Amino acid sequence: MSTATSDLTATGAGHDEEPLLVVEDLSTTFSTGGADIRAVEQVDLSLERGRTLGIVGESGSGKSVLSRSIMGLVPKYATRTGSVRFDGREMIDADTDVLREVWGAEMAMVFQDPMTALNPVQRIGHQIMESIKEHLDYSKTQRQETAIALLRSVGIPEPERRLKQYPQELSGGMRQRVVIAIALACGPGLLFADEPTTALDVTVQAQILDLLETQQRERNMAVVLVTHDLGVVATRADEIAVMYAGRIVEQAPTEVLFREMRHPYTEALLKSIPRLDLPSHTRLAAIGGRPPDLMHPPAGCRFASRCDYAQDRCREEEPPLSGGDERDSEGHLYRCWYPVGISRPQTTVDTVVEETHVRSPDDPQVSEALDGSASDRHGTSSRDGDAPASAAEDA
Amino acid sequence: MSALPEAPTAPRSEGDATEAAVDADGPPPANAEASRPGIGVGGWIAASWLIFVVAVAFLAPLLPFDSPTARGSGPRLPLFTDGHILGTDSSQRDVLARLVFGARASLIVGFGAVAIGMVVGGSLGLIAGFRRGKVDTALSSLFDILLAFPQLVLALSLVTFLRPPASSDASAPDTGASLTSIQILVIAIGIVAIPLLARITRATTLSWSQREFVLAARAQGAKGGRIMIREVLPNVLPAMFSIALLSVGIAIIAEGGLSLLGVGVEPPDPSWGNMITENRNVRSAPLNALFTPIIALFLTVMALNYLGDAIRRKFDVRESAL
């Protein structure tokens, strides 16, 4: 495999202090005919070589746009502001020609759906060798050998034969391995995996994630793992950023996040994962409502309209991404005025009366009365003394 | 990912073995290959007819046919006369020879015009669909403007414009430098075909350009032009090929239509179109001279349509199998 891992270490020693990837105040705006869509706003991230960052969020939360914005793979009508420093170089205003040198060679992306990420009319060998040809000065035989070695390293049997096959001759899992092989072809230092297992059979998912992990270890790659599934990143990411409506709402090292999640959205995401240890026919806790319209984002916290604990302040003032409470662990940031496990929100006059009902959330009638829109999420409020949700009014 | 201590690489092969086994159990690719329809019996008949027509037309000068323009003497000969198997027309010219040389003219016009339409229209459509934005707006408006003209009128005025003024009064003098009537027809019908083929190419390109593999190629650092040619074009070509075949039929018919208006291939040189035209008014209807080109035209256009459809179906199945 040494053939493909080319010039990863070619960078000077001057960047030792700075992580491989530093993203500061990154925002991405799509100009449409009418209002602009702010798909990603004020994102700060950093990632060291060999580490994994998990980006989690529901559909439309901007997680895919974020990874593409970092890479620079956004359409012409998108504007990016802020700073993306990769390996000490500023990428945000870099010329397309410069980016093209970086794409594939130093940063690569594994796409979600291996059914569409491969060209149906090109042989697999051609598709793998294409980017080697673009970036590395290899002879034809060397390219072929590299391609075979790559296919072998991603666990594809009979790689010589596969080179001549077309994508539709392979199964979904095999195709995703090919997609990974293509992304790894030139030995990138940073790999974006955009929902790499979402389109795959459950039994294949773990294999693909294991493969990514093995490759990461062998190549000392930094990996950005984008997913909607907290379960996927729980064991595989070093750090997790939870996105909601274009913003990072909570960010922490993985263990910290799962030990003490602060943002109600993170909590709700975790609760929405089906669990085997619950009795059958337990209702799945869904998050009611929809994400806000990014053309006209609401004032205040963007999750407020769906939050079980939202207060007046949440609807007026947007909380900053911060931490620093003495109960917080190092590096734990969240965007919430009344974080889970720290604040007891003030009980307002309206809610005092209903307070007793909230304490018995198991009674479906009570919580439906409290929140007319959310018959599917009763029994979710777990904190004592929390104000009942008023999502219905805002939604 | 450092959470897992030592996931040795050895078990990987085990996992692969199981997945390979699953692969073998699932719908094997070989099956899909077999169930994919070919072009069918009809397709082969159509293809054979076309190959036959093209071969005969191409080899016509080498084959022992009479001159298509040589006038005989005596009465008009009916079908199956010895030496003139399809008889002669009202000017005592051999109908078979005219049919064969007419095929030559019609096919040259058909394929030539579509070749121009494909190369020019296809490239413009590909660029418009791939680049999008302002380039697309500009090119699409151009196509729309061209399409706004009634096609027959456009072709007619193009022929009139391209035709050397001398030939309009004199009876077809072959002026060496200027274009022959066949070349004029190829260019005129080709230009008419450009916006049609460009629009179809653009639409096909648009849908393929939004596929993820195009983004994936970009993410691997491929240049725009390279993506357009190496990634998108090979996917657009099959659809274009079947449309090209259909268009050849239409172009051949267009030549017939222009002949009817007196601006087709110039007599006495035959084309299927002008053979029909010059025999349609004769009172003593020489049916052999009128109907043989009609039948040849009908069969050829039908074969082109059928084959085009069969090829399109074949590629559609392959797309949906993805």
How would you characterize this protein structure?
The complex is a heterodimer of chains A (395) and B (322). Chain A is 31% helix and 17% strand. Chain A has helices at 63-71, 96-102, 124-135, 140-153, 159-162, 172-184, 202-219, 230-234, 254-259, 264-271, 312-316, 349-358, 364-370, 391-394, and strands spanning 21-31, 36-47, 52-56, 78-86, 89-90, 107-110, 190-194, 222-227, 239-244, 247-253, 333-334. Chain A has 14 helices and eleven strands. Chain B is elongated. Chain B has helices spanning 10-25, 29-35, 40-59, 95-131, 133-148, 151-162, 165-169, 181-209, 212-219, 224-260, 272-280, 287-320. Chain B is mainly α. Chains A and B meet through helix 2, helix 3, helix 6 and helix 7 of A and helix 1, helix 9 and helix 10 of B.
In the predicted model, the low-confidence regions of chain B spanning at least 5 consecutive residues are: 1-35, 167-176, 317-322
DSSP helix fraction of chain A:
25-40%
Please describe the biggest sheet of chain A, giving its number of strands, its sense, and whether it closes into a barrel. Answer: 7 strands, mixed
**Inertia-based shape of chain A:** globular
Helical content of chain B stands at: over 70%
Give the helix tally of chain B. 12
